[in-house]
Amino acid sequence: MMGLWRIHKLMNPFPRVARFTVEVRDFGCLKTALGWTQDPVLDEPYLFEYAGRSDINERRLRDAEVIAGACCNGNPEILLEIGTAAGQTTAIMAMNAPKAAVYTVNIPPEHIRQGGKLVTYAPKLDEIGSYYRSRECPNIHQILANTADWEPDFGPIDVSFIDGCHDAKFVFNDTAMILRYCRPGSILIWHDFCPGLALTSVQKANVCAGIEKLFRKRILRGPIYHLRDSWVGLMVVDQRYAGMGIQARGR
Ligand SMILES: C[S@@+](CC[C@H](N)C(=O)[O-])C[C@H]1O[C@@H](n2cnc3c(N)ncnc32)[C@H](O)[C@@H]1O
């Protein structure tokens, strides 16, 4: 007979994610919760396009509100994106923090087989960052690397957007690695963080599984804010979990 714990696990495969996720009604409420005062600049035309069901309820705009909101508040100096692709989000980050340095990492095409399995997009070399180059953002630094064997040589990182390989193992390792370069109050944002869709999307299930493990191993602590209709989760790094790399590298 199936044990009670197994039934519970089947019904609730990510109990810590469920416990720590805070659903936020709208961007105004997120601003209040995080003490933000600034509204981001969000006028890139692609944010208003609808290419299919995944864009329902202005999902692109909701994602961008969270990511750009984190960039235009709190005067961040160093931003990191894992997974550049064409660089649409990179551009939004750079435009909303023009004084910051934005580092964006993408696996080079010739190494794609050494990356994980859940790779939504494998851009050719000239496609990586093509969007942000067309927007002429001077504060972006492109890094070509597989995050499985890459570490930053900069820090502390104020805002990170984690959107590379979506295998649970990569979500876990990318986050744990970034945490070592965070300070208390740094912001982590995961794409495809959407617990309500974890049963129907292998990517979203993997992102939840990676984050569940981070909670289970006590590498992460505290609430993850999920803006309604978005596919992103945001966490403010707790001082107990910010990394050891900071003292060594400093500002
Ligand atoms: C979903 S796309 C990123 C989208 C982009 N962040 C945006 O918002 O427009 C994921 C990207 O991560 C890259 N990627 C996948 N595995 C990676 C790895 N192990 N290291 C670095 N980049 C990786 C892929 O090549 C792809 O371009």
Task: Write up what this structure looks like.
The chain has 251 residues and is of the alpha/beta class. The chain has a single domain, classed as Rossmann fold (3-Layer(aba) Sandwich). Helix content is 33%, strand content 18%. The chain has 9 helices and 8 strands. It has helices spanning 4-11, 15-20, 27-34, 59-72, 88-96, 130-134, 168-179, 202-216, 245-249; strands at residues 21-24, 78-82, 101-106, 140-144, 157-162, 182-191, 224-227, 232-236. It has an 8-stranded mixed β-sheet, with helices on both faces. Helix 4 (59-72) packs parallel to helix 5 and helix 7 (168-179) crosses helix 8. The longest helix has 15 residues, at 202-216. It starts with a helix and ends with a helix. Residues 245-251 have low confidence and may be disordered. Bound molecules: S-adenosylmethionine. The site of S-adenosylmethionine has 23 residues, from helix 5 and strand 3. Residues 81, 83-85, 88-89, 105-107, 115-116, 119-123, 146-148, 163-165, 170 line the site of S-adenosylmethionine.
SSE layout and pairings?
Blueprint: H1 4-11, H2 15-20, E1 21-24, H3 27-34, H4 59-72, E2 78-82, H5 88-96, E3 101-106, H6 130-134, E4 140-144, E5 157-162, H7 168-179, E6 182-191, H8 202-216, E7 224-227, E8 232-236, H9 245-249
Parallel strand pairs: 1-7, 2-3, 2-5, 3-4, 5-6
Antiparallel strand pairs: 6-8, 7-8
